[in-house]
Fold this protein.
Amino acid sequence: MTTQDAVPGAHRRTVVVGITGGIAAYKAVGVVRGFVRAGHDVHVVPTESALRFVGLPTLEAISRNPVTTSLYDGVAEVRHVALGQRADLIVVAPTTANTLAKLAAGLSDDLLGTTILASRAPVLLAPAMHTEMWQHPATTANVALLRSRGVACIGPETGALTGGDEGPGRMSEPEDIVAAGLALLQGRDSAGDLRGDRVVVSAGGTREPLDPVRFLGNRSSGRQGLAVAQAAVARGAEVVLVAAHLEADVAAEAAGVVGLRVVPVGTAAELATAMDAAAKEASVVVMAAAVADYRAAEIAERKIKKEDTGDELTLRLVRNPDVLAGLAEAAVPGRLIVGFAAETASDRDELLALGRAKIARKGADLLVLNRVGWTDGFGTPDNEVVVIDREGELVGEAAGSKRAVADRVLDLVLARR
Ligand code: CTP
């Protein structure tokens, strides 16, 4: 069965397709049809301006449901919130710059606004606008704010725009929007073995500033942590990725993961604060970030100058708190803590010995160990790990793509419960 085939009745879900006023609104008909074909109950909520681009009768015919834009139709059945409360998924295609701004501000001056505010369903936006509007700092800030609240975005793509110009701003193709929406529904819906779980993953390398232009960093790419987050999303969990510095391609990939909430951080202290907040209601916490053990005792206000420091520069560093140890020590019932440890061990025995000492010190439930060196382990697509438990027992191992390793780690998490 492909994702676009009809689903059996029991899995028929309520999908709200919002349409806002851009030229790409004509393509929204394809989005509506895609969800109908997939067997879902589709309710279209266009804005007034969307109806200048696409006709209401078309939307009613394709969705097989009545269509209204008004807050004042169906008042008796409290339609302005009822649809949002019932929805299993809300897709807005196209999403104009104006709608992004309204959603970021939480405005609800039309049926689409009230429907989205009244809903706890996943929201997928398919922005479409001219390149200048997409790249405007106001739009960028609105998208970042919406993403930080867990709203998913697909596109825009780069290509020909209506005015004959070209650049990022083109709405993603209807079939891609439908596929992304169905993936979100499946996350909540499928036999995903992490359905109902809230998973928090840290990834990337922290950066500790020395002065306004310099920092102490490390070589973590964030790839393994992102793979854990992606695997958890695919298995139905609600996932937060606390992202220290990620390599550019990893950051771009993270931004594109539908349903993943990304919280960017810089220093170890920022990571600690973000993890504490995100981990409060988590059932699984995975510390894949490479966290700096030390930070500068003093951060210079201005650039450190050779004229002042001379031939030698001594930096005084102070210890950072250990986030993993803190989370493990809190021992919240029902919350499982997984650490990662990259060790420059010469063989597997030494790796296990270092890992056993580390988990004894930190107290995590599981510790994922891998060997690193000047050339191994960082930024590569593959990984090879062994996993030990709190008692130091070897409970599993995995080799292959970072995604395969991520899934194995999540299998071990589930086996542990
Ligand atoms: N970690 C953390 N807070 C720190 C340092 C590390 O939460 N200040 C976490 C990492 O995210 C990882 C685990 O601890 O999950 C192991 O990190 P690692 O750097 O290998 O451990 P350290 O305690 O720093 O040990 P070492 O002395 O080997 O550097």
In short: The pocket of cytidine-5'-triphosphate is lined by residues 268, 287, 289, 291, 293, 320, 322-324, 339-342 (CB under 6 Å). The longest strand covers residues 336-343. Residues 174-189 form the longest helix (16 residues). The radius of gyration is 24 Å.
